[in-house]
Amino acid sequence: MLLKSEDKDKSNPKSYRPICLLSTISKTLERLLSNSLRPVFLDPGYASSRQYGYCENRSTTDLITEVLSQVDNTPDRMMLAVLFNVTGAFDNLKWDNIKTALKNRGIPGDLLSLVGSYLSDRQVTSFGAGIKFTHRLTKGCPQGSILGPSFWNLCPDDLLRVISDAGGNAYMYADDLILLVSGNSREEIEMRA
C-alpha cells in the first residue's frame, strides 16, 4: 500500500492506495477483453459525446473549446459553471454497475460472464508490524489496468445522457464533471441548477 501523498494522515486507511500488480497473463486478457468490448465502448448509441476522458480523438483542448463555445453562444444570458470531482472514482466503481452497464449495452452473455469472472475473487493484502491482513474486494479498478478507464466511462454515460435530455449541458473529463447552467437571471439559474 502506498501513501497517496505526503500531506495525508498516515493513521487513516483511506490515505493509502493499494499497489495492484497485474501479471502478464492478466494484462493480455485485459487487452483481449478491451479489443472485444471496443465496439461497445465506442457505440454512439451508448457512449456519450460529452465524455472526453479516455476517449479516442478527444482531448482536454476539445473539452475547453466546447465549454468556451457554450459560453460564447449565450452572450446575453448569465451562466453558472458547477465543477465536481468524483472522489475515489476508480477505487469505488462497483463491479455490479460495470456488469449492468455492459448488459444494458447488449454484450453477448459469454463475454459478460468472462468480464464478471475477471472482476471476481479479487483481494488486497497488506503487511505491516508482523501482521498480514487480506480484504476481499467488490469494487474498484486496479491501478494501471487496461480496462479501468473504459469501465469508468461506461458509468457516467447515462448521467450525461439524462442531463442532456433534460436540456442541460454537462461534460466529463475522466472523473471531473462540469455542469453549465444558463438563464436570464440568477433566480432562473438557481432554479434550473
Automatic annotation (TrEMBL):
**InterPro entries xrefs:** DNA/RNA_pol_sf, RT_dom
Native organism taxonomy: Eukaryota, Metazoa, Ecdysozoa, Arthropoda, Hexapoda
- The UniProt entry's coiled-coil ranges are none
Fetch the PROSITE patterns from UniProt: RT_POL (PS50878)
**GO BP term, pick one:** DNA biosynthetic process
Protein known as: Reverse transcriptase domain-containing protein
To which species is this protein native? Trichogramma kaykai
Q: Which residues form the Reverse transcriptase domain?
A: 1-193
Q: Which Pfam families match?
A: RVT_1
